Amino acid sequence: MIIVLKPQATEAEVNHIIEKVKSLGLTPHVSKGSERTIIGVIGPEDILRVTPLEVFPGVENVIPVLAPFRLVSREFKKDDSIIDLGKGVKIGAKEVVIMAGPCTIENIDSLFEIAREVKKVGATILRGGAFKPRTSPYSFQGLGKAGLQMLREVGNELGMVTVSEVMDSRDVALVADYADVLQIGCRNMQNFNLLKEVGATKKPVVLKRGMASTVKDMLMSAEYILSAGNFSVILCERGIRTFEDSTRNTLDISAVPVVKQLSHLPIIVDPSHAAGKWGLVPALAKAGIAAGADGLLIEVHNHPEEAVSDGAQSLIPERFSSLMGELKGIANSIGRKIS
Ligand code: PEP
Ligand code: MN
User: Which CATH superfamily is domain 2-63 in?
Assistant: First the structure.
């Protein structure tokens, strides 16, 4: 349920309603907009049916929420959320944010080299996995803490925001110590304990869509993070499993405008894990921005043929650089920009 207050509602009236909601055993989440305040109410709504809040001074309207997600919904927050990622980078505003880097952190030299290349042409966020969700237990599992240390060193040296995946609740504090942004991978989108754990941190989270999840499932997972107190969530469309086998996954480009309709949260597109082949990455990246994505997550490697994971879908820096030129043109044509 969402309580919309009158523009002229006083502080005392707002507090009175908050106290009333709390006394009913429900949890209020207050969103103060430029024109009016909105209170999202979490908990069994039946109680509110016998205690009509419409009658309280300052209340304009009480909207029952049909969608099961509340805090992530547009009804709760009309304006797009802009998330501050630190180091001067914000996502969800006019600027389209580019995250790039290797699938896996392999060693400090190659991470530095790749980071310098992507930064030079406008990427502001460095990606790199230290904990890798591999299909086979015999595949390289990531460098763990040593990889995170490299990521932090390179990020600090170059002034880039860093993003890295956390796969296990037990590692949240460790990854949060080293990375600026936590990534929840597609395989863990519905690992609810992990979602609660990252929700308890103050770190921004990139939440990747599960490969067999609907957009609504993804929004419900985001709701876990927001309801735990962390509103800094960036959704990520990275392709879903379909019967089509010419790509690794099918990029569901419509997820971008659908999320924009249903939610105030920013959404980015990962063309690399959707395509599975580097030659398809530029077209999907361009489509993502044209569809209204707030950013892209792109795998780049200086020697893809030697990459320990996802080399086939990684762009070499030269190709990433020419793609960035094209992306800037597309962003400009829809009234946005890339640094
Ligand atoms: C990744 O970003 O390297 C990754 C493993 O992504 P996903 O969870 O989308 O497969
Ligand atoms: Mn990868």
Answer: Phospho-2-dehydro-3-deoxyheptonate aldolase; domain 1 (3.30.70.1140)
